[in-house]
Amino acid sequence: MTYVLPLVALGGALGASLRYLASLLWPAPWGVMAINVFGSFAIGTLAVPLLLSERGPHPLAPLIITGVLGGFTTFSAFSLDTLGLISAGRVGTAMLYVGGSVGLSLLACGLGLWIGRLA
């Protein structure tokens, strides 16, 4: 059990670094949306072998699921970007962003679960 916290911290640092690099490639708010969609797909795909296996959770699940993907996905930044768009009077863009982020992330996670269960 003592190994779990350092794994989560290491994964979180890696995930946050990857999120930062991705945000440099795609400006807000669309980069954040892409990160959330990809992170949702990844967690859906990886949940099957790492968390939902008949053998129980994989020992690296805290590193990958909680650490890397928790540090990578950005719903707190998503909320801030949404309110920023609304404050700037870009309500239509904000609603498109919210709908796209939530809808596409749910679809991506579902697709990831489906693909993960095929293996």
From TrEMBL:
Localization terms from the record: Cell membrane
Catalytic activity annotation: fluoride(in) = fluoride(out)
Keywords: Cell inner membrane, Cell membrane, Ion channel, Ion transport, Membrane, Metal-binding, Sodium, Transmembrane, Transmembrane helix, Transport
Gene Ontology biological process terms in this record: cellular detoxification of fluoride
GO MF assignments: fluoride channel activity; metal ion binding
Keyword Protein biosynthesis carried by entry: no
Function in brief: Fluoride-specific ion channel. Important for reducing fluoride concentration in the cell, thus reducing its toxicity.
Entry's family note: Belongs to the fluoride channel Fluc/FEX (TC 1.A.43) family.
Protein name per the record: Fluoride-specific ion channel FluC
The encoding gene: fluC
